[in-house]
Amino acid sequence: MSEGGDDDPDFRRSAVGCLDRLYSFARSLTRSRTAAEDLVQETYVRALRAANRPTDPAGVRPWLFTILHNVWKNERRRRPPDSFYAPPDRLERIPTEAATPEEALDHDSVTVKVWRSIEALPDSYREVVLLRFSQGLTYREIAEILDCPAGTVMSRLARARALIIEAARPSREVRRVSGRH
Amino acid sequence: MTGCDAARRVLTPYVDGELVGDERRAVDDHLASCWPCRTLFAEEARLADSIRDAIPRHEPSTELRANVEALLDARRARPRAALRSLAAAAAVAVLALGTWGAQAYRARPRPVVTAPPPPFVALAVDSHLRYASGRLPLEVRSDRPDEVSRFFTGRVPFHVTLPEYPVGPGEKKAYELEGGRLVSLDNDYVAYLAYRMEGRPISLLVASEDKVKPSGRDTVRSGRLSFHIDAIAGLKVITWSDNGLTYALASDVSVEGARTCLVCHGSPTERRRIENFSPGT
Question: Does the interface ipTM go beyond 0.85?
Fold first, then answer.
């Protein structure tokens, strides 16, 4: 981490390039469009205020996620849950490549079940699932963002998987249908 | 050659692509010759796919994208733009401050200041601009001071009690309270209050004096209070401390400086005092 200037075009490019992922993560965390937009903007405001920025473009994404997670953590600690929990956004329809309507229905019902089971996870598990499966971050990057050992990330992921399978029973259905991809 | 137990211990990191080099090759070798483990690993990979597929992808709105890009561009352009905007803002602020009642405050040439404003002042400007453009949603939306005050109880490390604006018979309120929310400053929260006066938004930040000290390019005294005044990005920002709290009032330069004081000092006596207020005294 070293000093990055305000007029650094590489930083700007990297920071803008992270917007989609930051927003998607914020939206899943907050379950609210307005709260997610606020969280993302606050993340960029803080990033711009920071004295030290990563000079390596590859370091910008985990760094921004760390800021976003810290802002979120503080918000969550300071506010009662219902102050930022809007009704969960509905499970948006996810396009499938199913060959038939029956297959599509089958797939969607599994998708909805899996998503509901992710939504029902404790926050500490839900965060690692979102960072790993939605953002594709490595265990080490997730550990840095959450400020915990990589071993903790691994154990939370393993536990989260078990809970998802349990909640989305029958697990055979999850695997059989998803196996058509 | 890795055995079944050893291979299954690294099932999750293997599927997640965390296993590399010799460790990965050892598992690959085992899977090539072990059908039950191969089936188990394949199921785990499909589960990972199911989870990945189930998480909705949310696209940021065009407005959010524009806001973020504007934030980044404004920051990049600041060193040069500040010279122009501060000079223009200073001129406008001087005009606005001329309405503070007396003529004692005389504009005098000052060097252009390019240093960034203190965090509390910057936050007041940022919050005001975001609220005015509809990008800072309120957490409590009410014109009742008691209701808005209650929202902050237990959420900020100080007590917020908003005064009622006393309205005489046939008199119209000089301002309307719109609500409030928390905004963060240095890993802590301060209170943000939104008002509207003559159709223009006014923002008031309140923080503990222990954490934040007032600051501004110009200082004027009124009684026991010192008001610090700045003009930034076309906004007038006044900060001061009183009774253990520090305030920052941000408003459009078109709102008369002294009139914004009515937000907290609306009693007839205080109103007269404001009307007679001379920044030079």
Answer: no
